[in-house]
Amino acid sequence: MSDLSPPDPVRRILHIDMDAFYASIEQRDDPSLRGKPVAVGRGEARGVVAAASYEARRYGVRSAMPSTMAKRRCPELIFVKPRFEIYRAVSAQIHDVFARYTPLIQPLSLDEAYLDVTDHLGAYGSATEIAQAIRADIRAETGLTASAGVSYNRFLAKLASEQKKPDGLFVITPRQGPAFAASLPVECFHGIGPATARKMHALGIRTGADLRACADGMLKARFGSSASFYAGISRGIDHRPVNPDRQRKSIGTETTFDRDIASQDEMFAALERIAQKLWASCDKRHLTGRTVTVKVKYTDFRIVTRARSLSDPVSSEKDLLTSAGTALETLFPLSRPVRLLGVTLSALLAQDQATERTQLALFDTC
């Protein structure tokens, strides 16, 4: 792991990230909200912040924060209900902008994506000029701002996009990459979560430079198959391509109850509503799957999951509900009341593929 040079040939990767996407759309569409702390989500006692404006973030308000905590941190916080159909429509506009510049687009969510422009510079002199053009198009066509990172791999491009938020652009060149990675705390590295960061801290690994100094054998022993990735990013090396065909891994729906639920009848009534909503979402995307996972969050915020892997893909809403119900039954009697219930379908495949497989299976038994 002594080679600090970037991969050859050098790629030109952009990471485009919209600024406070949901909240910015709400402020754009309602001028009375501009310049004020805004949270998208339910403001009730059981609500959760889905997104926060930069004005709200100055008070420490963050996504996934309970609404009550957000209100304590920012008493002037204004809650607005999410309008996901609007967010999806604006996201489609933004992705149309991306497609003008390169076909190699890997969406990460509604509001961010990687773009590989290595072979698609066109009339532009550099990837930086393309990033500037994309940001200008987005502002002109949506009235929103985007931040951009430009570098020679995905890891550094994503880090770069965070350096001058909001409405900024930052470039990390191949010459700068290894030193930039070495200077960062490991908890800033995408791919190193809080638990892994704590484990690294316990080993005296606090920066990219510390990580780089570790022997390969030690990293392998402590972090298994992830060791080579960690060693690489500490040197500014990331060989992962921008994958425009990246498949969705799961699709899920959950609900936070207005009051704690403790009875089996109430839980299964809620599960039926969730399964109906989830299957409608699957139908819309023409997807199904073979693994059904039920998620429960208790009143003490402890989360448990129960999964069922099926031999055949889920074929209907009734099939989904049956599998989810079987998984949920294993949690009774409940150890304490429940505040949230969710269902996720994974091991996804297209519904037409599932139908073909079922037909082939039936044919084979004839």
TrEMBL record:
A Pfam family: IMS_C
Molecular functions per Gene Ontology: damaged DNA binding; DNA-directed DNA polymerase activity; magnesium ion binding
Site for Substrate discrimination, residues: 22
SUPFAM superfamilies xref list: DNA/RNA polymerases, Lesion bypass DNA polymerase (Y-family), little finger domain
Residues spanning the membrane: none
Cofactor: Mg(2+)
GO biological process, one term: DNA repair
Domain UmuC per the UniProt entry, residue ranges: 13-193
Amino-acid positions noted as binding Mg(2+) in the UniProt annotation, renumbered to this chain: 17, 111
CDD domains according to UniProt: PolY_Pol_IV_kappa
Keyword annotations from UniProtKB, A to Z: Cytoplasm, DNA damage, DNA repair, DNA replication, DNA-binding, DNA-directed DNA polymerase, Magnesium, Metal-binding, Mutator protein, Nucleotidyltransferase, Transferase
Catalytic activity: DNA(n) + a 2'-deoxyribonucleoside 5'-triphosphate = DNA(n+1) + diphosphate
Localization of this protein: Cytoplasm
Enzyme Commission numbers on file: 2.7.7.7
Co-factor remark: Binds 2 magnesium ions per subunit.
PROSITE patterns registered for this protein in UniProt: UMUC
Residues forming the catalytic site: 112
Principal EC category: transferase
Keyword Chaperone on entry: no
GO CC aspect terms: cytosol
Alphabetized InterPro entries for the sequence: DNA/RNA_pol_sf, DNA_pol_Y-fam_lit_finger_sf, DNA_pol_Y-fam_little_finger, DNA_polymerase-Y, DNApol_IV, Rev_trsase/Diguanyl_cyclase, UmuC
Function: Poorly processive, error-prone DNA polymerase involved in untargeted mutagenesis. Copies undamaged DNA at stalled replication forks, which arise in vivo from mismatched or misaligned primer ends. These misaligned primers can be extended by PolIV. Exhibits no 3'-5' exonuclease (proofreading) activity. May be involved in translesional synthesis, in conjunction with the beta clamp from PolIII.
Subunit structure comment from the entry: Monomer.
Family recorded in the similarity comment: Belongs to the DNA polymerase type-Y family.
Annotated protein name in UniProt: DNA polymerase IV
Organism: Acetobacter oeni
